[in-house]
User: Fold this.
Amino acid sequence: MSRVHRQRRLRARVPKVTPFWWFMRMGGGPKPYSDVWKLCQPCWKRINFVPLVVVAMFCSASYLLGIWQHIGAPTVLTAISCDGKATDASLVVGGAPMLDFAAHHAADESDVAIPAAREFTACDAKYSEYTPCEDRDRSLRFDRDRLIYRERHCPEKGELLKCLVPAPAGYRNPFPWPASRDAAWFANVPHRELTVEKAVQNWIRVDGDKFLFPGGGTMFPDGADAYIEDIDRLIPLRDGSIRTAIDTGCGVASWGAYLLSRNILTMSFAPRDSHEAQVQFALERGVPAMIGVLASNRLPYPSRAFDMAHCSRCLIPWHLYDGQYLIEVDRVLRPGGYWILSGPPINWKRQWKGWKRTEADLSAEQSAIEAVARSLCWKKLKEKGDIAVWQKPANHIHCKASRKVIKSPQFCQAQNPDAAWYTKMETCITPLPEVAGIREIAGGELKKWPERLTAVPPRIASGSPDGVTPETFRQDTELWKKRLGYYKTVINQLEQKGRYRNLLDMNAKFGGFAAALIDDPVWVMNVVPTAANTNTLGVIYERGLIGTYQDWCEAMSTYPRTYDLLHADRVFSLYKGRCEMEDILLEMDRILRPEGTVIVRDDVDVLIKIKSVTDGMRWDSQIADHEDSPHQREKLLVVVKTRQIAAFQPTQPRLEQQHKAKEKTCQKSSNFVISSDSIAPRSPNKAPEAPTEILFLMKRDDRMLPPNPES
Assistant:
């Protein structure tokens, strides 16, 4: 056979295209026809493709399952307390993954300077109720005339405490609303003074480890509800025309507490004085309140803010100082608003003996009050029993004409009626906006509640503040509805009724955040910072919401552990270069309750700096994406503050040993410690499962810390 013929036969025995099944059978199938394949036959016998296919299918299934879990069910971090209780004070993140912005490389040219974390220690136990700007020791340095020493007197920069204000021993979560209206834990506000001083007036009483609030008051021993019904017979409280009220000298705020059921939101205030913690009791009950006093400065509210003002034996000398205090009430009272006075000197002919004052003295006081009211052009509507009601005019047409006869007080000239941050009171009437006719309401007529909430406020409709249009307002309202919906996907507790009660919006703008929460059982203190470019607090009040001015370089006029949730929208960018970031964060820690939540919206670079400070406060932090896109520079920083660190108590070594033993036990059982009185205790023999992800900022439960030398 020729050489060419043999080559042809050999090529014919080798297939031109090797089929797929050919390779699959090389491990044990029929042998190839060509002798060429004998060179590779041992290799093919060692290859088995079945395991490779199974592994590929398993990896694909795992990948798809991971995507489904990420989009579907949210991941929950559960923490176990030292008390052996699981807690619901965790954050749930559904479609909002938490982001890691920690530095994993060095950069020589970085425009974000991140300082080293400073460790903050616990303040001494005596600071558990510390109110920096109403500190009793510091206030004694100031003038006692007209109670000026009880106004805000904030510490200088060198006097600021750089420590974490502790909770009192035995602190527990407040009762959820509405149960909190009628009860509070004694350990949270450990003061019995009011139970003794006001025992016969039915303000408050002790029942075991709780305070009970029967709803009584100095002028309503039968209860606040019955007292409010008496007022309702004099002026309309249920038709929606009265929405915002101010209670001067509020006591434990029972009047404001019982008005809530009538959809009337009351700003209650009282000084920090010999009646220990009356405002603190109000806030513990879940009722809006602030520390405040009528002395020499204006109240921190805009003009034309309240539909109704109230004084029930509030001990304010309305007839003195040329009627300045009543003039200030006139400033914050809306056109057509009501002023209610009960107690001395009203009904003095019947009550003078019980008040231990002379008839002549009481008669002269009432005459002086009525003279001041007439000089303000108020009309006395009714006086029935212990209650008298005056009404402010709807405009100042007649009042200005009367100045030809009534020489004092005159109308203020060239004055900003809404300026109220350390602004001195004046003995002049704040003029109402001009009107075209005698029946027109100055500043514009407000809608009745609840239409008032979403209607364009008259201030915006009239072009004040500058640059804000009705369309801007409507867009802001819709924006915050959207943002709140996103918040509820990030923080599952926002969906739980009763989890939050007292909320604070640190930069409220138009009050959109509070308006979006209107159907939830919460109230929001809307703050317009003094550093804001536009004063919008008057707009907030025209929506039927409440709020105050505040400089966040200073402490707020409230007690520690006031709020369940803080919302800080661009606050730190606003105060950049004005004061230290750590001072704002320490104040936030002071006023936030244990297991409270913080939401910070800001530029990502600012949030990284905030995190560097909170690390020193023993908080664990995470950042979440913006609701619109992960490409937005604005992000969210979310906080859950666990049990407040206990104060250092060197005189109680046994208690210290117990805390240390408790902490040691916790460290063995869980990396994160949190507690709640509403969850059943876990089994002591079952270790908690380790969380797969840390999805929020949480403050560790470091029970015993050394005392701060600066405190």
Q: What stands out?
A: The domain at 218-402 is CATH 3.40.50.150 (Rossmann fold). The longest strand covers residues 592-603.
